[in-house]
Design goal:
mainly beta; Porin; eight-stranded antiparallel β-barrel; 1 helix; 9 strands
Length: about 190
């Protein structure tokens, strides 16, 4: 009987490190909320600052220390800029950054047991809205701009199913419009 108990304990001791190595804190579907700093503008105009906020989803695969995944995101921005005297005296032209849709991928490396360093790239589509008021007539228009997003970040697992992250990303759109964003996020992995 003792040899069976000893064999079971030995088997459990040998199997425990294998199970621990199979635990992959960065694998599976995830949802997250983000908020951060948004700086938007063009080469010809001054940049405007605001807040970016939204939500994202993704799915990651972890193989050893390598993590690869796909992700999507919906954000809004408070960037809003107005100019007076653009065409005639006392007129007003206001531009506002609206929603931003993103889909892309990321690849990274696990550092330590619970920290992921990653880079990301993908397609983004931003909505810009403009309003012109010359004192007698008010005109509104909007445009969707396609672009690419590049970024890098750090994600840290703070529990078996939750994480925090910090990320910088640069988005370059049509018509020389660009955004620089620094965001933080909190999410859950399923």
């Amino acid at each position: 009987m003792r040899k069976y108990v000893f064999a079971a304990l030995l088997a459990g001791t040998i199997a425990a490190p294998a199970v621990a190595q199979e635990a992959a804190p960065f694998t599976g579907p995830r949802v997250e909320g983000i908020i951060g700093y948004d700086r938007a503008g063009t080469e010809d105009l001054d940049d405007s600052d605001g807040v970016v906020y939204g939500a994202g989803i993704g799915y990651d695969f972890q193989l050893g220390n390598l993590v690869a995944g796909v992700e999507g995101e919906f954000t809004e921005s408070t960037v809003d800029e107005c100019e007076s005297g653009v065409i005639v005296a006392n007129d007003t032209l206001c531009a506002q950054a609206g929603r931003d849709l993103y889909v892309g991928g990321r690849i990274g490396s696990v550092v330590g047991a619970n920290t992921l360093l990653y880079a990301k790239a993908g397609y983004t589509n931003a909505r810009l809205e403009a309003e012109y008021d010359d004192g007698t007539t008010e005109t509104e228009t909007g445009d969707n701009l396609d672009g690419i997003r590049l970024g890098a970040g750090i994600e840290h697992a703070i529990g078996p199913n939750s994480f925090v992250k910090a990320e910088y990303r640069y988005s370059n759109y049509e018509q020389d419009f660009e955004k620089h964003q620094g965001v933080v996020g909190f999410g859950f992995r399923f």
